[in-house]
Amino acid sequence: MSKPPAQSRSLLKHRRRQWPWLLPAVFLILTVFPPLSLGVVNLFTLLPALAGLVLLLWTLRRQRLPERGRRLSRRGRRAFHILMLFLSVAAVADLGLIIAGGRSSAWQKAGADTPVIVLGAQVMPDGQPSLLLRQRLETAADYLETHPRAVAVLSGGQGPDEPESEAACMARVLSTELGIAPERLIQESASTSTAENCRFSQRLLSQRGLGPEVVVLTNRFHLFRSSLIARAQGLTPLGLAAPTDWRLAFALYFREMLALPKSVLFDLR
């Protein structure tokens, strides 16, 4: 039985090298479906799937046109591989910090009167808190019930697609649905970012003679960055993590991996 021509063997070998790229491409595309099951569609739920689609099309194109892979010199390919290795290591370190920093310390370290800053999240068009915000509010109610002398700063302004400020929504839900006395709730409704959440909340607490030790309450994926920003604002943060629905986890951690370097550069001054 004759062997296939050298050119055919080279083509088969090239195609086998491309198959490993298909697995991450398909995985990234499939990540769009869990958020869709909750009706959540935004840039950060679609971005991983779009990246997967680009990777899939690139891989399929390279399978048909193996000669394109030879356009770079050996030195160029080596530089490209080093760059990809660097980015991979940076991404793993970034994600590791976010995961490790998502642990709660408030339950063990907060005093009975340590105030809590509840960071806002999206309010739905019907005035109900989004799933992320609901999880934060339920965790806030648990904290306030077990720390009876503590007050809460509810921090979040009103976005263009929100019927009221996030602070107002949080106060309404905590007082009418979760049984927290309104006089324990301080609304901060001017902030539009995590940095402003911490800055404006610190001012309100300082006016009441509270702080610098505070509990910072947000979802687990967001806790590390929020605590860094709070510390940069002169606070001594104790983290309190609300759970994150697994169907949103990939998109949210992906978003946070992009947001952390930005905050390190611009929000920690």
Describe this structure in words.
With 269 residues, the chain is of the alpha/beta class. It has two domains: 70 residues; 161 residues, Rossmann fold. It contains ten helices and five strands. The chain has a five-stranded parallel β-sheet. Strand 4, helix 9 and strand 5 form a beta-alpha-beta unit.
Core attributes:
10 helices, alpha/beta, 269 residues
What layout of secondary structure does this protein have?
Elements: H1 6-30, H2 33-37, H3 43-64, H4 74-100, H5 106-109, E1 116-119, H6 131-146, E2 152-155, H7 166-176, E3 185-188, H8 194-207, E4 213-219, H9 220-232, E5 236-242, H10 246-266
Parallel strand pairs: 1-2, 1-4, 2-3, 4-5
Helix pairs in contact: 1-3, 3-10, 4-9, 4-10, 9-10
In short:
This protein has 269 residues and is of the alpha/beta class. The chain has ten helices and five strands, in the order αααααβαβαβαβαβα. The chain is 59% helix and 10% strand.
Number of strands: 5
Bulk shape: elongated
Q: Give the topology string: H per helix, E per strand.
A: HHHHHEHEHEHEHEH
Tell me the strand percentage band.
Answer: 5-15%
Number of helices: 10
Q: Given this structure, which CATH class of the largest domain is correct? A: Alpha Beta
Overall pLDDT score: 88
- Rg is 24 Å
Pairing-aware structural class of the strands and helices?
Answer: alpha/beta
Count of discrete domains: 2
CATH fold call of the largest domain = Rossmann fold
First-to-last CA distance: 71 Å
CATH architecture of the largest domain: 3-Layer(aba) Sandwich
Helix content: 55-70%
How would you name the oligomeric state of the polypeptide chains in this document?
single chain
**Largest beta sheet: strand ordering:** 3-2-1-4-5
